[in-house]
Specification:
Layout (H helix, E strand, L loop, with lengths): L1 H15 L4 H7 L13 H31 L7 H11 L4 H12 L3 H25 L3 H9 L4 H12 L1 H21 L9 H9 L3 H33 L1
Helix pairs in contact: 1-11, 3-6, 3-9, 4-6, 5-6, 6-9, 9-11, 10-11
Length: about 240
């Protein structure tokens, strides 16, 4: 249900919000500019979604590769470090990553994309390691008995059996990306955080509400769609 309701809510907001100035003025009559108009909400949503999608794609590729490496015999010594990084990295605030990245990459989308990718890798990495480590030994022995090589066993047995946890990591990575991209507007990225940041700076609550509504609807939409994919993946494993 969420996979249908949340995207529908997002579409309704994108249609209604550009024409809601009178509503916000009635709610907050002291505001001279009750509606954010610097950039259209549709353009902000597309830009936000593009940043999240690109960063999530890079994060999934990197997280899968590192997770596979850490669970191979040659990389087993890296497994404790990988697990520690996956846990500790989640406690590092996104604002700190942006603060470090801005002097190196400048203002705009680049530092935001870096922060999104770094945060997106951690859930995928952690869930890939957990999923591959929990593959049934019986399935691995059966694959070995059928003459599967290491790579064939990985692609045809291990990754399909670990697909459920991995998909959960992808889902979490995308949701984390939606929130982190919002903060990226503080360093010049064009996202749905733009009206929120401008509203906070200018003491305009209407801007904050408009941005927050769209960010929430987008996060719920992505979570709903990826939730459906995750459930189907888990059912197919049974």
């Amino acid at each position: 249900m969420k996979a249908i309701v949340a995207p529908l809510l997002l579409v309704i907001l994108l249609i209604v919000l550009p024409h809601s100035a009178s509503w916000f003025h009635a709610w907050m009559p002291t505001l001279s500019h009750p509606l954010y108009t610097r950039t259209s909400f549709f353009a902000l949503t597309l830009s936000h979604l593009w940043l999240v999608a690109l960063a999530t794609l890079v994060a999934v590729v990197a997280g899968l590769a590192l997770g596979v490496l850490a669970t191979r015999p040659a990389g087993r010594s890296l497994l404790p470090t990988v697990r520690a990084v996956a846990v500790i990295g989640q406690t590092f605030p996104p604002v700190a990553v942006l603060a470090i990245a801005v002097p190196l990459l400048g203002f705009g989308a680049a530092p935001t994309l870096l922060a999104l990718t770094l945060y997106g890798v951690l859930p995928v990495l952690g869930q890939t390691v957990a999923g591959l480590d929990n593959v049934s030994p019986a399935a691995l022995h059966a694959a070995d008995g059928m003459g599967y090589g290491r790579w064939r066993r990985l692609w045809e047995v291990e990754l399909p059996l670990a697909a459920g946890p991995i998909m959960a990591g992808v889902r979490l990575s995308a949701i984390v990306g939606v929130g982190t991209a919002t903060i990226g507007s503080a360093v010049g990225a064009t996202t749905l955080g733009s009206p929120i940041v401008e509203g906070l700076v200018g003491n305009n609550t209407a801007y904050v509400v408009q941005g927050a509504l769209l960010v929430g609807a987008l996060a719920l939409s992505i979570d709903g769609v990826l939730g459906v994919v995750e459930r189907r993946v888990r059912r197919n494993r049974r």
